Amino acid sequence: MNSEHRLPRRRIRRRVVGAGVSMVIAPWVFSRPVDAAPALPSPAEQKAVGAKATEDLLKKYQPVKDGRLRFFEGLAKRLVAHLSETDRTTWDYQYYVLDSKEVNAFAVPGGPIFMLTGLLAIMKTEDAVAAVTGHELAHVYRQHWAKAYVKQVQRRRAVAIGTLLAGNKAAALGWGAVTAGVLRQKHSRDDEDEADASGLKDMVTAGYNPEGMLQLFQTLMEKGGNGGGPLGGPFLAEHPLTSDRIARAKERIAQMGPRTYPPLKPFNYDALR
């Protein structure tokens, strides 16, 4: 047995506290054998985390409930209606427009999707809005947060053992740490690329013009450059270079083969207010 396992309970507890709350893992790990590989959080567990993260977000941002929300909700529901049955029915999709100058959109585990007015206001077509919305929906049904979380648990195995020994108080603190982590989520660039690919496919299936995704990326480049820095928030910094995203989107559109798409539909943000 490792000497770390022979430490008195009190010493282990002090080490956990010293590691900080951000190192505490979620309660669902507690019921699994310490030496077992962590399982992917179930949809129900992901929904629980997302619900708590949504509570925190709605304390930080003012939700918009006018025509902007009705437009976004209608567009998102159109995309969801064209997902596979599993991707459509497994998750509790909810839609929010938040009043903020940040040029950003994001999803939290389990289904909630957030569009910030700073991004919605600069969209030129409904197809571009569909592109970013499809991207965020893909983060949910591809379970990117859950997969990243499992990797974090594996890297923090010693802390997980200490948390097990620390008792229910540490377990309760774990929820706060997990939801805080959700709000700081930085998807890998592979996950971002997968969300681009899935979002493009989904928007085309729902009847949008794929040029809207190119237009989205071009608008982001106009506003924030080619990546590597914040765009009113972390939206661009954590994504692949915008020029690379444009190139990949063009390749994917070409791979769809010759077909006729509906024309791009102009988007009038001010008319929704």
Task: Provide tags for this entry.
56% helix; 6% strand; single chain; 273 residues; disordered N terminus; alpha+beta; four-stranded mixed beta sheet
Task: Going across the biggest sheet, name each strand in turn.
Answer: 1-2-4-3
* Derived structural class: alpha+beta
- How many helices? 12
Give a quick account of the main beta sheet: strands, pairing sense, barrel closure: 4 strands, mixed
What fraction of residues sit in β-strands?
Answer: 5-15%
What is the overall silhouette?
Answer: globular
* Computed Rg: 21 Å
The overall pLDDT, averaged over residues, is 80
Helix-strand topology string: HHEHHEEEHHHHHHHH
Low-pLDDT segments: 2-34, 157-167, 228-237
Number of strands: 4
Q: Between the first and last Cα atoms, what is the distance in angstroms?
A: 65 Å
Q: Give the fraction of residues assigned to helices.
A: 55-70%
Describe the structure.
The chain has 12 helices and 4 strands. The chain is of the alpha+beta class and 273 residues long. The chain has helices at 9-19, 43-60, 67-81, 85-89, 117-120, 126-141, 144-155, 157-166, 168-183, 189-205, 211-224, 242-255, and strands at residues 62-64, 94-99, 105-107, 112-116. It has a domain at 9-185. It has a 4-stranded mixed sheet, sandwiched between helices.
Short account of what is shown:
The chain is 56% helix and 6% strand. It has helices at residues 9-19, 43-60, 67-81, 85-89, 117-120, 126-141, 144-155, 157-166, 168-183, 189-205, 211-224, 242-255, and strands spanning 62-64, 94-99, 105-107, 112-116.
Task: Describe the secondary structure blueprint for this structure.
Blueprint: H1 9-19, H2 43-60, E1 62-64, H3 67-81, H4 85-89, E2 94-99, E3 105-107, E4 112-116, H5 117-120, H6 126-141, H7 144-155, H8 157-166, H9 168-183, H10 189-205, H11 211-224, H12 242-255
Parallel strand pairs: 2-4
Antiparallel strand pairs: 1-2, 3-4
Helix pairs in contact: 1-8, 2-9, 3-6, 6-10, 6-11, 10-12, 11-12
